[in-house]
Design brief:
The protein is an alpha/beta fold. It folds into 4 domains: 10-80, no CATH class; 125-209 and 378-442, 3-Layer(aba) Sandwich (Rossmann fold), CATH 3.40.50.300; 216-323, OB fold (Dihydrolipoamide Acetyltransferase, E2P), CATH 2.40.50.360; 448-517, Orthogonal Bundle (Helicase, Ruva Protein, domain 3), CATH 1.10.8.60. The chain is built from 20 helices and 17 strands. The strands form 4 sheets. Strands 5, 6, 7, 8, 9, 10, 11 and 12 form an 8-stranded mixed β-sheet that branches. Helix 8 (198-208) runs parallel beside helix 13 (390-399), helix 15 packs across helix 17 (483-499) and helix 16 (468-480) runs antiparallel to helix 17. The longest helix is centred in the middle third of the chain and has 17 residues, at 354-370. Residues 152-445 form the AAA+ ATPase domain. Belongs to the RuvB family. It comes from Gossypium australe. This is RuvB-like helicase.
Length: 552
């Protein structure tokens, strides 16, 4: 303990004036000694004398370009000490700003699954889902069949009133499927574009929802780095850099010769001795697996990103099976034209010819027979499906019968309405022949108790503290108007609470924003009262009973 305490005390440096006048480097070192000890008053006259001297510059600025130098002593010391006129005992540390992570909160960002137990029974409140027990149970049965691979080329319709959780159930299915099962989501109005036809947009959406799991065996070199030796040429422009890499496992140790590209890759990954790395022999890709447990005591403090792993055992060179998960659409885009993989990043895929897709399907079928590939049927969710026209519906009839078709989930809030593109009426705006292929799941309106639980979850998601009376009032508003309107008032009331320097949202905040923002019922009433004041009013003057019927 005594030795540690003595370490904290700064020793008094022994510097002479002769060593100070020797060269610039020693002058800087002496300045640091002065700053550490705090001998400002004693050495200030000497410093002024040195500044006036023409033979010696305290901080000469090099005229060369700002290139990083390995042995630059000025770069290490000069940023802390700009001149001797500064207070020497004060060291200016770089100010670090805390960057606030901005997270966008969406309408369904609180949903993490369907909220089912192991026997597919829905819990009351789980994974962000509340209510809709029958619909969630039906979706859970479909989900289990998708995971087991027993269902493909089927279609499910989620039908219900607006604000009853149809999209929430689809999002819960997407979260429960996991990352390996592809899930595509689009609205019924997204497929109408001037750049490509409607059927091409639907076909691309179908191909995005079909995954291919490709198995591949590769040779890798996996071990712990013992030493890295890099020989740099003495003259610039001479031969390229060469080096040696020593790797070891628990059983053996080997030295590998390195070329310029491997040296560059090692520098890019910041590999040093003690790291456990894996090198792909085919591509030359270096993967940093972590740091060896034997080097865990090299540093007193390390960042949270540091991961410690065991030193590999056995041979250095191993054969490893790598599984790549891609979608059929990605394979289509890459093979559609030269440098087609760039279109995956730009999004400018354009129309893909049918011949390209046929060749890819043939190749994937060959891989399946050889055991190299496996088809993963995903889920395609089309919201507002009543916006599709009769041509799109006829395309869906044919596409669902394909052997490599995904699970199609569609949602609509329409009753008996006309099919787009025709004069015929049909349930949900969908032709009868397609309705016959659909398994229909209905959703029911939420009760007042369920609305209260949903508002509790949303307050927690949006980080808003609300009193019980305010939640009760907001629940009543949501039950009388709509759930979406009540959810929108949460953030608005929180901002009003901040304005009055409050910590908890009270009833007065809810009342304030309720008077500022109208719901559909009050807005309709306002339009009926002042319809003569508006231009191009097409609604006829109705009596009180008709107005009430419209509100309902």
């Amino acid at each position: 303990m005594g030795k540690r305490a003595d370490r904290n005390k700064t020793p008094r440096p022994k510097c002479s004036s002769r060593s100070l006048l020797s060269n610039v480097m020693r002058t800087e070192l002496f300045t640091i000694c002065i700053a550490n000890v705090g001998l400002k008053e004693q050495m200030e006259p000497k410093a002024q004398t040195l500044k006036k001297s023409k033979k010696l510059e305290l901080y000469p600025r090099p005229k060369t370009e700002n290139k990083p130098s390995e042995h630059s002593f000025h770069k290490t010391l000069n940023p802390a000490f700009t001149s001797l006129n500064h207070p020497m005992a004060e060291l200016k540390l770089s100010e670090s700003r805390d960057l606030t992570r901005i997270e966008r909160i969406g309408a369904h960002s609180h949903i993490r699954g369907l909220g089912l137990d192991s026997s597919l029974e829905p819990r009351d409140v789980s994974e962000g889902m509340v209510g809709q027990a029958q619909a969630r149970k039906a979706a859970g049965v479909i989900l289990q069949m998708i995971k087991d691979g027993k269902i493909a080329g089927r279609a499910i319709l989620l039908a219900g009133q607006p604000g009853t959780g149809k999209t929430a159930i689809a999002m819960g299915m997407a979260k429960s499927l996991g990352l390996e099962t592809p899930f595509s989501m689009l609205s019924g109005s997204e497929i109408f574009s001037l750049e490509m036809s409607k059927t091409e947009a639907l076909m691309q959406a179908f191909r995005k929802s079909i995954g291919v799991r490709i198995k591949e065996e590769t040779e890798i070199i996996e071990g712990e780095v013992v030493e890295i030796q890099i020989d740099r040429p003495a003259v610039s422009g001479a031969a390229s850099k060469t080096g040696k890499l020593t790797l070891k496992t628990t059983d053996m140790e080997t030295v590998y010769d390195l070329g310029a590209k491997m040296i560059e890759a090692l520098g890019k990954e910041k590999v040093q001795s003690g790291d456990v790395i894996a090198i792909d022999k085919v591509s030359g890709k270096i993967t940093k697996l972590g740091r060896s447990f034997s080097r865990s005591r090299d540093y007193d403090a390390m960042g949270p990103q540091t991961k410690f792993v065991q030193c590999p055992d056995g041979e250095l060179q191993k054969r490893k099976e790598v599984v790549h998960c891609v979608t059929l659409h990605e394979i289509d885009v890459i093979n559609s034209r030269t440098q087609g993989f760039l279109a995956l990043f730009t999004g400018d895929t354009g129309e893909i010819r049918a011949e390209v897709r046929e060749q890819i399907d043939t190749k994937v079928a060959e891989w399946r027979e050889e055991g190299k590939a496996e088809i993963v049927p995903g889920v395609l969710f089309i919201d507002e499906v009543h916006m599709l026209d009769i041509e799109c519906f006829s395309f869906l009839n044919r596409a669902l019968e394909n052997e490599m078709a995904p699970i199609l989930v569609v949602a609509t809030n329409r009753g008996i309405t006309s099919i787009r593109g025709t004069n015929y009426k049909s349930p949900h705006g969908i032709p009868i022949d397609l309705l016959d292929r659909l398994l229909i799941i209905t959703t029911e309106p939420y009760s007042e108790d369920e609305i209260r639980k949903i508002l509790d979850i949303r307050c927690q998601e949006e980080d808003v503290e609300m009193s019980e009376d305010a939640k009760q009032l907001l629940t009543k508003i949501g039950h009388e108007t709509s759930l979406r309107y009540a959810i929108h008032l949460i953030t608005a009331s929180a901002l009003n609470c901040q304005k009055r320097k409050g910590m908890v949202v009270e009833v007065q905040d809810i009342t304030r924003v309720y008077s500022l923002f109208l719901d559909v019922r009050r807005s309709t009433q306002y339009l009926m009262e002042y319809q003569k004041e508006y231009m191009f009013n097409e609604a006829s003057i109705v009596d009180g009973e008709d107005a009430d019927a419209m509100h309902d």
